[in-house]
Design a protein that fits this description.
With 165 residues, the protein is α+β, with helices and mostly antiparallel strands. It is built from six helices and four strands, in the order ααβααβααββ. A four-stranded mixed beta sheet has the order 1-3-4-2.
């Protein structure tokens, strides 16, 4: 698909998603729960909207929706906080640990796993659009192997972990 055609497709999807999300009040109870990973209601809402965008996109392309995993979400939140407080950004932390190392250290045993990161965006829908525009990040979102996911957010640092157990 050409870049202009792909951009139109992404914008069409985002517009449809934005339109459907605007129908929900900020305190909508029918948005997916995101457990305890967010420290405040506004952050929880941002995470829920990103969760919804990911699963709506997956379903639109014929993938099964991912199942929320609180362990992945806690680890993602912790990593977002670590990047913010230690002043770094990347998949490898200052101690040399990869996302897979961090998952193993947290006792999360997986058959396959992936991670997407973002920094600076204030809204999940911005992160989602940026990830869809990046082939490696898009591949993580669209990978049919993954069954579970968790999202962390702290000071405009986003961490998305997905896995198959």
């Amino acid at each position: 698909m050409s870049t202009p055609a792909r951009s139109r497709l992404v914008m069409s999807f985002l517009l449809g998603l934005f339109t459907s999300l605007n129908a929900f009040p900020a305190t909508a109870t029918h948005l997916p729960a995101c457990g305890t990973t967010a420290t405040d209601p506004a952050s929880a809402h941002k995470i829920r909207l990103l969760m919804l965008a990911v699963n709506q996109h997956r379903e639109a392309i014929g993938c099964k929706p991912l199942i929320w995993d609180e362990r992945l979400a806690r680890l993602a939140r912790k990593y977002s906080e670590s990047m913010a407080t230690k002043g770094f950004f990347g998949h490898i932390d200052p101690d040399g640990n990869s996302p897979f190392d961090r998952m193993h250290h947290a006792g999360i045993h997986f058959l396959a796993a992936g991670e997407n990161l973002a920094v600076g965006q204030t809204k999940g829908i911005q992160v989602f659009g940026d990830w869809l525009d990046s082939p490696p990040h898009r591949a993580v979102i669209e990978n049919r192997v993954y069954t579970h996911y968790g999202i962390g957010f702290y000071r405009n640092r986003w961490s998305y972990l997905c896995a198959r157990y």
